[in-house]
Design brief:
Elements lengths: L5 E4 L9 H16 L3 E4 L13 H12 L22 H13 L3 E4 L3 H10 L20 H9 L5 E4 L6 E6 L3 E6 L7 E3 L7 H11 L4 E5 L6 H11 L7 E5 L2 E2 L11 H5 L8 E2 L5 E2 L2 H4 L3 H9 L14 H7 L10 E2 L2 H13 L3 H14 L6 H11 L7 H7 L11 H6 L5 H13 L6 H15 L3 H13 L7 H8 L1 H14 L7
Parallel strand pairs: 1-2, 8-9, 10-13
Antiparallel strand pairs: 3-4, 4-7, 5-6, 11-12
Length: about 500
């Protein structure tokens, strides 16, 4: 294929970009790259009543964080711009008027009250069975029509849905989907304020931007019937893109669609990066939570797409090579946050060690601690199998460098014995005489001391970890002691004794 293949991600700037929207962008990106085509970002901002300041910038920053960089966009430009629908307003009216002239659409002058009566009291929709009872250019006399134009009476332009026809959509994922036009309303194409509706702007822009594939959420499948009718009304049937409607992302329980508010209920993010609503409410993002962008890409790719093997870990290039619409499942995909964390853990586990070291040095420096390259390397060696998020490196290793540590209160309350304070006094004296500070020698010294003192390793080793870094759990104890160094190890023992001397027996 070539760059004649064109896919677009077309979000509305009405708030934060949900993780389901990111998956839609990802699938568009993957297929565009797989087929050697273009990935386009188009901002569909014609609904000004729902427009949220800062939402477009949020969309752009989210895509940038994940590396899903568009070839054409409002920021980058391109040969088919503008890429904001609010900047393309002059186009839509022109095409709507073409449909009116061809008898495929009509002007409607009905008042909001008349429309409300039709829907609520008569329980009907504006369609082929009711349009001739309403006030529109199909029912008006020439005199009424002339008066309406003279008075510049408020109106909309509606699609004239044909009667008694079948609309057949061949969806790549869903297969053949049929709609009976008797169930479809005469959709508004141009609103009374002159703004196009989603349906009108979407179809016109897809045609003018030469979009070849439309990959979007399952909730848009019913709208595709009207879109197909619009392609037919314009005579663009041969240029209609291939449609692929994605399965829903479900709540962790499997019951219902994962919503923007579910993160609060289930205790995990549902947005790519932090988002603050206009009212000040803040929602956490996966980035700030500590997720690696590559891990998120891998996780989301498999949330509805099956490569046909048991393999789970893919680089972006490998995803591009393996991706196809035919392997997208039809059923909803349950959002498993624990699995998402597993992906993040795997990416850190397999990350390039030198890159991790540089990141750790920068992170510690940002927090006020200057590490040597050797220290960063040791932190990677000690903790890379124990971390889930990158920030865990600092949280687990900071104790080596802090002036003092806060000991685990639960450990002190439930497991610490008062007789261990004099034991630590003895250890302080003995350790001061240890000459070699390599892990193997330290292991022999510590075990010998524990044996003479009559304390079990299962009790002594957690105690030493608490003394050093505040937590009873951690990596290999003797590598921890070696990394801490003799001077600081003795200091930690002294600090612990001083802080807990009130617990000493007698």
């Amino acid at each position: 294929m070539s760059d004649s293949v064109r896919l677009r991600f077309a979000p509305s700037p009405t708030g934060a970009l949900h993780i389901g929207g990111i998956r839609t962008a990802l699938y568009n990106f993957l297929l565009a790259r797989k087929l050697g085509g273009k990935f386009i970002l188009r901002i569909e901002d014609t609904d000004r009543t729902r427009y949220v300041e800062g939402a477009e910038d949020y969309i752009v920053r989210s895509l940038e964080w994940l590396g899903l960089l568009p070839d054409e966009s409002p920021q980058r430009g391109g040969p088919f711009g503008p890429y904001r629908q609010s900047e393309r307003m002059h186009i839509y009216r022109q095409y709507a008027e073409q449909l009116v002239a061809a008898g495929k659409a009509y002007y409607a002058f009905d008042t909001p009250e008349a429309i409300e009566q039709l829907r609520s009291r008569d329980n009907r929709q504006y369609d082929a069975t009711t349009r001739m009872k309403m006030v529109n250019s199909l029912t008006m006399t020439e005199a009424e029509w002339a008066e309406a134009r003279k008075d510049n009476r408020p109106h909309v332009i509606r699609l004239k849905v044909p009667e008694g026809e079948k609309v057949v959509i061949r969806d790549v994922i869903r297969g053949e989907v049929q709609f009976d036009t008797s169930t479809l309303d005469d959709k508004v194409l141009i609103k009374s304020d002159g703004m196009p509706t989603y349906h009108m702007a979407n179809v016109v822009d897809d045609r003018l931007m030469q979009i070849t594939h439309v990959i979007r959420g399952d909730e848009w499948l019913p709208s595709t019937a009207h879109h197909a009718l619009l392609y037919a009304a314009f005579g663009w049937e041969d240029q209609m893109p291939a449609f692929a409607h994605l399965p829903l992302i479900l709540k962790p329980t499997g019951n219902g669609k994962l919503s923007k508010r579910d993160g609060v209920q289930f205790g995990f993010p549902v947005f790519p990066i932090d988002w603050q609503q206009p009212d000040g409410t803040r929602f956490p993002g996966f980035r700030e939570w500590g997720f690696e962008p590559d891990a998120m890409i891998n996780f989301l790719a498999l949330l509805g797409w099956n490569p046909g093997t048991d393999r789970e870990l893919f680089s972006l290039e490998e995803l591009i090579g393996a991706f196809s619409l035919e392997k997208i499942v039809k059923s909803g995909a349950r959002f498993d946050f624990e699995k998402c964390k597993w992906f993040n853990q795997q990416y850190l586990l397999h990350a390039d060690a030198a890159t991790l070291c540089h990141r750790i040095e920068r992170d510690f420096a940002h927090r006020g601690f200057e590490l040597t390259e050797a220290q960063a390397e040791t932190i990677v060696q000690l903790y890379r199998e124990r971390v889930v998020y990158f920030k865990d490196f600092f949280e687990q290793a900071a104790g080596y460098f802090l002036p003092a540590v806060q000991c685990d209160a639960g450990y002190i309350e439930k497991r610490f014995r008062s007789g261990w304070v004099p034991l630590l006094v003895q250890l302080q004296v003995g350790a001061a005489a240890w000459a070699n500070w390599d892990p193997a020698t330290l292991e022999g010294n510590v075990k010998e001391f524990a044996g003479h003192a009559g304390i079990k390793p299962g009790e002594f080793f957690p105690l030493l970890r608490v003394v050093m870094v505040g937590s009873p759990t951690g990596p290999d104890l003797f590598r921890m002691i070696a990394f801490m160094g003799k001077e600081r190890f003795l200091l930690r023992i002294a600090q612990f004794i001083e802080s807990h001397k009130d617990l000493q027996a007698g």
